Amino acid sequence: MASNAVPLRRPKPSRRIGWIRGARAILTGLRITNGHFMRNLWGFIRRKPTVFTVQYPEQRVPMPPAFRGMPVLVQMDNGKERCVACGLCEWACPTDCITIFPAETADEVERYPDVFDIDMSRCMFCGLCEEACPEEAIVMSHEMEIAAFSRRGTLWHKEDLLTPVESVAARLSHIRRGYERPEAKPAE
User: Fold this and answer.
1) DSSP conformation letters of 78-128
2) pLDDT in tens, 47-99
3) What angle do CA 132, 106, 111 make, to 5 degrees?
4) Exposure of 130 by Cβ count < 10 A (0-12 exposed, 13-18 middle, 19+ buried)?
5) Is the pLDDT of residue 12 over 90?
6) 175 Cβ neighbours under 8 A, 6+ residues apart
7) pTM, to two decimals
8) Would you state the pLDDT for residue 78?
9) E strand residue ranges, the chain
10) CA distance 135 to 143
11) pLDDT at 1
């Protein structure tokens, strides 16, 4: 319990000063906004825009090879998936959005995924599934438009995820760049 409490007397804030500061802040904001507007308008009139604007559905910005969009399954030339249903991508996924049920076959690939589902509403596009895959069967594509109207629309099945090798070739070369060793230079 405080026995030596001393009450302080502070002057009341002036309403006039607060109003002036508020008006000054509003006028400063309007001045900056009008300056940007006039600069952009002058660039538009001269046909030399000063602002970088992309009209998205019609124009697209090229994505770098390191961009991680939606994960897809790589399809071999014969139309089958590269995946051998080892389950490493399912194990590496931190959100458990990948579901794999393996099946056996008599082809050169002994196993294949009978069911391969990815719940895109849970996927966080981290790329850990891509790093865990020993067959380069799952890669992060440049596809990013995966909106759906229902929860059922965010569940992608194996048939939806299959993508030809040609469409993800840039991403595959980017991945391989990370684990290929540079050639040793001969000694002179």
Assistant:
1) TSSBS-----HHHHH-TT--EEEEEEE-SSSS-EEEEEEEEETTT-----H
2) 888 777 788 889 888 888 889 999 999 998 888 889 999 999 999 999 999 99
3) 15
4) buried
5) no
6) 130, 136, 139
7) 0.66
8) 84
9) 71-75, 98-104, 111-119, 138-140, 155-156, 162-164
10) 21
11) 57
pLDDT at 183: 66
Could you tell me the two tokens for 120?
């895109």
The torsion of the CA quartet 168, 171, 177, 180, rounded to 10 degrees, works out to -40
Q: Which residue, among 112, 154, 121, 161, has the nearest Cα to 140 in the 3D structure? A: 161
Give the domain 71-179 fold. Alpha-Beta Plaits (3.30.70)
3-state secondary structure of 71: strand
- Listed residue (78, 84, 85) closest to 99, CA to CA: 85
- According to DSSP, the β-strands at 162-164 and 71-75 are parallel
pLDDT, residue 167, reads 86
**Residue (of 156, 95, 104, 109) closest to 137 by Cα position:** 109
Question: What does the domain layout of the chain look like in residue ranges?
Answer: 16-53, 71-179
CA neighbor of 73 nearest in space, from 145, 187, 161, 185: 161
What end-to-end distance do the CA atoms of the chain give, in Å?
A: 86
Contact 84, 92 (CB under 8 A): no
Q: How confident is the model at residue 117 (pLDDT cuts 50, 70, 90)?
A: very high
